[in-house]
Design goal:
Layout lengths: L2 E6 L3 H9 L7 E6 L2 E6 L15 H11 L3 E5 L11 H21 L3 E3 L8 H14 L3 E5 L15 H10 L2 E5 L14 H21 L1 H4 L4 E3 L1 H4 L2 H14 L6 H5 L4 E2 L5 H11 L4 E2 L13 H7 L4 H15 L4
Parallel strand pairs: 1-4, 4-5, 6-7, 7-8, 9-10
Antiparallel strand pairs: 2-3
Length: 325
């Protein structure tokens, strides 16, 4: 079984529901123009217009067939996580999106859905995660920036969420934000080239050094993009740990994380395998986004790995984590 663990899906039913249920969300503004639906949550600037590929279920299935992918783990679109809504609205928003996401996966069982959570409130996020797990979700996809630019995942009031993830053994996919606030990446396509990685490495290094990764070790914490550079900076983080009192061991944290193959260079994938082990790495595509790897099997085949490592990366590990038959 070949499993792609990093994709995004906004079912067509979600677009219909957003328009139909808009009165439930007074802090949400719809910008419905010819280029596609965009949303403005609270006082945040509008999202990008939604791209067609996010809702093209038939097209996604055809792509999966072409790539030989049997199952596809999909979260919603990070632009539409709704973390800028007031807490009660944010919870209602996430429950609506989750209901639609789960229905889409039941209609097409090749999709494995990840829930959306209201991380503007740690207790509400915990409640929504527990409900999602009970409903059949294996976990959730969250943003590196739970409350917008400058926010952190190790904030003390998010502890109820992390405890819920630990208690349930949830898969927690930590996704880079579209805008992390660094204007230097706004040229040359660097928002995609390095911005996603720099955002994720800071967010997840904080979780490692704060002790969250080791404290909540029963949660299956997933950091995409080859662990977002953490394997490369591990030596520096260990040095930092040795001279900074009160920090956790980053090497232990790295050994507990999971990641994907979206590094676009087989040499880099070999390095990540060496640093983390093939039993921590899974196939990923980031479909339907252009910066993703739309032929994810190629890099695994080209990395010079052993047959058992290839089998684990291509689906063996994912089948165990997501209990796929």
């Amino acid at each position: 079984m070949i499993v792609d663990v990093h994709g995004h899906l906004v079912p067509p039913a979600a677009l219909d529901a957003i328009r139909k249920e808009r009165a439930r969300f007074p802090s949400l503004r719809l910008i419905d123009e010819g280029g596609g639906l965009a949303l403005a949550f609270g006082s945040a600037k509008p999202s990008r217009p939604i791209m067609k590929g996010l809702s093209d279920v038939a097209g996604r299935l055809a792509w999966m067939d072409k790539q030989g992918i049997d199952r596809h783990v999909v979260g919603s679109w990070p632009d539409w996580f709704g973390s800028d809504l007031p807490a009660a609205e944010g919870e209602a928003w996430c429950r609506l999106i989750n209901e639609i996401q789960l229905a889409a996966a039941k209609a097409e069982p090749r999709f494995v859905p990840l829930a959306t959570l209201p991380l503007q409130d740690g207790a509400r996020a915990a409640a929504v995660l527990k409900a999602a797990i009970a409903a059949g979700f294996p976990g959730a996809m969250i943003s590196t920036l739970p409350r917008g630019i400058g926010s952190v995942l190790d904030a003390p009031d998010l502890d109820p969420f992390w405890k819920a993830a630990d208690d349930t053994g949830a898969f927690v996919s930590i996704h880079p934000a579209f805008d992390a606030g660094d204007s230097r990446v706004n040229d040359y396509g660097l928002a995609n080239g390095v911005g996603r990685v720099s955002d994720a490495v800071v967010a997840c290094a904080r979780l490692a050094m704060s002790g969250h990764v080791t404290r909540y070790r029963n949660a299956k914490i997933f950091v995409p993009l080859g662990a977002a550079g953490l394997p490369f900076v591990l030596g520096r983080l260990q040095r930092n740990h040795s001279i900074t009192p009160g920090t956790a061991d980053p090497a232990e944290a790295l050994g507990l994380l999971y990641t994907d193959t979206i590094v676009h260079d087989p040499r880099v994938l070999r390095f990540v395998v060496e640093m983390m082990g093939a039993d921590r790495i899974m196939l990923g595509s980031d479909m339907p986004f252009p910066i993703g790897d739309h032929e994810p099997g190629r890099i695994v085949a080209a990395a010079g790995l052993k047959p058992d490592q290839i089998a684990s990366i291509n689906g063996g590990l994912a089948a165990k984590l997501f209990r796929l038959g």
